[in-house]
Structures are given as structure tokens and as C-alpha cells.
Amino acid sequence: MTNDQPPADGQVAESVAEFLASFSYGSRTDLNFKFLKSLDDEAAKEFIRQLFDAVGTAYDTGQLDAIVESAVAAQIAGYTPNPDKRGKTILHDDGPFHRPTKPLNESRVGLLTTSGHFVNGDVPRPLVASSMPQDEPIDRIGDFIGSESTLSEIPSGTATDNLRVRHGGYDITSAAIDPNVCFPIDVLRTMESDGTIGSRAPTFFSFPGATAQGKLRKVAPSWVDRIRDEHVDVLLLVPV
Fold first, then answer.
1. By C-alpha distance, which of 192, 112, 205, 188 is closest to 154?
2. By CB neighbour count within 10 A (0-12 exposed, 13-18 middle, 19+ buried), where does 34 fall?
3. How does pLDDT run along the chain (240 residues), one tens digit per residue?
4. Whose CA is closest to 164, among 227, 111, 115?
């Protein structure tokens, strides 16, 4: 970051804004911290100060909660739309609501997520490759966004260790360790077992949310028809 001292020979001065942007598909790409690009300079500096303070405290206490809490608070601030900077952000004052026709404990519940999960061996588009490492979707995020996505069909009895995830828009580490972070398949199975819901749909669905909206609008009607075939009373939507 720039300061009052001139850069050393061979070094290029970097502004605070450039430093923050480098975490979002830049020289320091880290999808856990790409939200830094959305913070103003002062908010970012305060986050870094708080983070260092929490790390220093953790040296003595061994408690890491404050570090996580600091990062989560900064993420919320970074991703909260600024009404004074509408740009391409679309804000909705309300949304459609359809009252369920049955009690939840009598309802068939389906699942649709934008997490990018799929069954091992059933590799979806875009850019099909069974052994594609996670850094490739990140490096080629533009190609993924410009490609037509596939709606992955996942039998609701699939074991979590037979699930895979691919997505270039968020850090998938937690979702790969425990798919229920954003694809709550075990949660719904438990809710069915304890009677909280009537039943789960035979098939759950997922696709990577980092996709071109124009292409998504073209395929969405057929996806809706396929999901309707599950005859669900309630559809759980999980955006990632």
C-alpha cells in the first residue's frame, strides 16, 4: 500500500484500493476475502486493525472466535448493498410469497441450491472435466460465467461422501468438507426422520450460481418443469 516513502527500486506503488481489489480474482485471489474490494479504504483499514488485534489476543488466550467474528462482520459490511451506489445491484423492497397449502409436517420438501454440488461421476457443464482442480474455475471465472450451466440432479438419498462441488465464485473448502454447509441434504433427511417435514423429494438440485443471467433465463423454464415433476409442496432455496 502507498505511504509517504517512495517505492524501492523495481517496486511499483500500490494504492489501498488496488490492494483490496487484488483479493478478488487478482494477484492475491482469496475468495474468503474478495469482499474487501467492496469496502472503502477506511472500513478496510479498520477491519485489518481489528483482525491484527484479535490475532494478538489469541496469542495469549488461544481463543479464535474474535478473529472469525471480525471477518464475518466485515463480510456482511462488504456484501451489504449500498443504496447510494446502486450500479448493477438490484434491490427489492419485497418478494413473492405463497402460503403453503399444507402443514410442514405433511409437506414434501425439495431442495435447489446455487452451490455447484453434483454426484461423484456425474460431472456437469460448464467446461466438463472430471479432475478439474478448484483453482481452475477460479482462474477461468469469466469462461464459467459465460457458459450455460447444467442443473445437477442429486438423488436425495445420496451419501454426503459421494457428493462433489465445483464453483468459481466462493471458497468451496467448507462445502467440500461438509456439503450441508450450503447443500443441507443430511439436515432434510433428519427433519424427515423426526417428523418435522412430511417427506423429502426423491431428487434434489444444484447448479453453480456464477453463471450468465441471460443464459440462465433461457434454461430456467425447463428447470422449473423438471423440479415440478418432483411434486413438492415446499422448495427450499439456498443461494450461495
1. 205
2. buried
3. 445 555 666 667 889 899 999 999 989 999 999 999 999 999 999 999 999 999 999 999 999 999 999 999 999 999 887 777 656 666 677 877 788 889 999 999 999 999 999 999 888 766 655 566 667 778 778 877 877 788 999 999 999 999 999 888 889 999 999 999 999 999 999 999 999 999 999 999 999 888 878 888 888 999 999 999 999 999 999 998
4. 115
Peptide bond into 137 cis (omega under 30): no
| Helix, strand, or coil (residue 152) | strand
Q: What is the CA radius of gyration of the chain?
A: 21
Cβ-Cβ contacts under 8 Å for 221 (sequence gap 6 or more): none
How far apart (Å, rounded) are the C-alpha atoms in residues 86 and 104?
Answer: 38
d(CA 71, CA 68): 5
Three-class secondary structure of residue 18 per DSSP: helix
CA distances from 191 to 94, 178, 239 (A): 29, 18, 20
- Return the SS3 of 192: helix
Kindly state the DSSP code that residue 15 receives in the 8-state scheme: -
